[in-house]
Amino acid sequence: MPEGLPRFAGIRSIIVQVGVIIGLEGGGTKTGCAVLNEQGELLAYAEGGPANLNFVDEATQRRSFETALNGALQGIDAPVLALGYCVAGTRANWDWVLQRLGNPPAFPIEEARMAMLSTGVAIAHGVAVIAGTGALIGGFVDDELKVQMSGWGTLLGDEGSAYDVAMRAIRAAVRAWDGRDRETALIEAVQRYFGVQDLRELIPLFYEQGVPRHTVAAFAKHVVDTARAGDTRAKIILRQAGDDLARDALACAAYLFARDDEFDVAMTGGMFKSRIFRSAFQNGFEVLFPHAVFREPVMPPAEAVARAALRRLRAG
User: Fold this and answer.
1) Which residue intervals of the chain are DSSP H helices?
2) Angle between helices 220-228 and 232-256 (to 10 degrees)
3) Dihedral of the alpha carbons of 48, 53, 54, 60, in degrees to the nearest 10
4) DSSP readout, 288-308?
5) What confidence tens digit (pLDDT) does each residue in 69-94 have?
6) Nearest in space to 67 (alpha carbons), one of 80, 86, 51
7) What are phi and psi of 50, to 5 degrees?
8) Do 158 and 245 touch, CB atoms closer than 8 A?
9) φ, ψ at 132 (rounded to 5°)
């Protein structure tokens, strides 16, 4: 998405007379919607709220989809030639989306494929790693998804995700608060983010009122900021999370590739914006696969979904 573009904005405020392709991608923190013309040019992009049903209810997911769709399609009057869709978690109700768009051909796009294509590669060959609100790893050989790992959600896994990093930091803060561990600036970060003074106020907040998981995951950004400011504990947490994710990605790579093979490693999701996290991941991975080519996103996930749908539409 171009620098400085408003969150809900069309890249071109025009009325399109030809058909368009839509990519809709729902994640644990936000939903993206991208609109392409038949030549593959990006016409519009907009965002909505969270859509992962492991984190939010179906009503929230629908509102998120509607917000993203309304923002992206504003000012565009054209038939929808195809819909590409992808949602983190287990499921989504796509029937009403298809009805609204005129029941175009619909193409489900795997999360791992979306991640790989978002780095700009034409053919998926390697390991796609998502470290966003949740975590997911997929392995491809010659554009075929061969294996998928992680993606178990916050209760069963998601090591290396934003939620995982946030919970490690919150636990470190409460340990330091009652003297079980050394002082850390994460205490102040927790106080500011959750609006508490005494960290024991977190107990009714988490256990009685409940804190949405995407809200917890968003605290990871403050962990990154605390590490950037020099806090030792925050730095350790980011390194450990990056190491753990590298270990899991290595298991996927070892299933498909030999040590001297050259293949892509797509590093996607907000956690890779942290230099400490990213370096720990890369250093851990390239020890066993020195010829791996690390790639970062060059487009929003929803645009990658739209491009995958356009490709399938052209292929017939």
Assistant:
1) 58-73, 95-100, 111-117, 162-177, 186-194, 202-204, 213-218, 220-228, 232-256, 275-286, 301-315
2) 120
3) 50
4) T-TT-EEE--SS-HHHHHHHH
5) 999 999 898 999 999 999 876 566 78
6) 51
7) -70, 155
8) no
9) -110, -135
- The residue behind tokens 């796509």 is 94
In sequence order, what are the beta bridge partners of 107? Answer: 84
Token pair of 9 as six digits: 């904005």
| Contact (Cβ atoms closer than 8 angstroms) between residue 242 and residue 165 | no
Packed helices 220-228 and 186-194: angle between N→C axes, nearest 10 degrees: 140
For the chain, which domains are there? Answer: 8-118+300-315 (3.30.420.40), 124-297 (3.30.420.40)
pTM for the predicted model, two decimal places: 0.86
**Cα distance between residue 76 and residue 16, in whole Å:** 6
Q: Which two tokens stand for residue 238?
A: 């980011």
Written as six digits, the tokens of 303 are 């645009």
Tens digit of each residue's pLDDT (9 = 90 or more) over 206-231:
999 999 888 999 999 999 999 999 99
For 30, the token pair is 């936000």
- By residue count, the chain amounts to 316
Structure tokens at 301: 């996930």
Give the closest residue to 255 by CA, choosing from 280, 281, 288, 295: 288
DSSP 17-84: -S-EEEEEEE-SS-EEEEEEETT--EEEEEEE----TTTS-HHHHHHHHHHHHHHHHTT----EEEEE
